[in-house]
């Protein structure tokens, strides 16, 4: 399918900070910004900034960011599913994965993650996609948050709901390995029924669990 990216931006004042939310942005735009040293959930900051710039320049790749005074303090990524995951076995070219969402610790509590997800869905092209995210408790910042697994799960699900992603069942072994793990999905309004059925076949590969 043709990947159309429409840029959006908005400035929001929260707790005395004026934050810029924008995207999808290019790798060149990412490289113009500083990158918060606290964004370490997936890689060291310099490596993660490089990875985001590479994703941004993929035809299907989308990076939306939150910026404070020229520094990226939060981001969300959309890209084709990881080749090592079952979702990549789908023949659909309109299946995107919300691969990562991260906000620097000192900016949490300002609804930065929710705003990023809301901004992501401003783009009308998202109505052509099935968007998934796989939540695994071992990726969550339980130590710094002071939350239990279930409290954190509730926070993550509420935040994803802001982007229109809702819980869906699956028999994926990694998700099923812990009850707090989950699959969340947003099906765009223009996604054909046959694509939804194809996606359902990927969600449930073990027919006895349907």
TrEMBL record:
BP GO annotations: acetoin catabolic process
InterPro entries linked: AcuA, Acyl_CoA_acyltransferase, GNAT_dom
Record-level Gene Ontology MF annotations: acetoin dehydrogenase (NAD+) activity; acyltransferase activity, transferring groups other than amino-acyl groups
Pfam families according to UniProt: Acetyltransf_1 (PF00583)
CDD domains: NAT_SF
Residues annotated as domain N-acetyltransferase: 25-173
PROSITE patterns hit by this protein: GNAT
Name of the protein this chain belongs to: Acetoin utilization protein AcuA
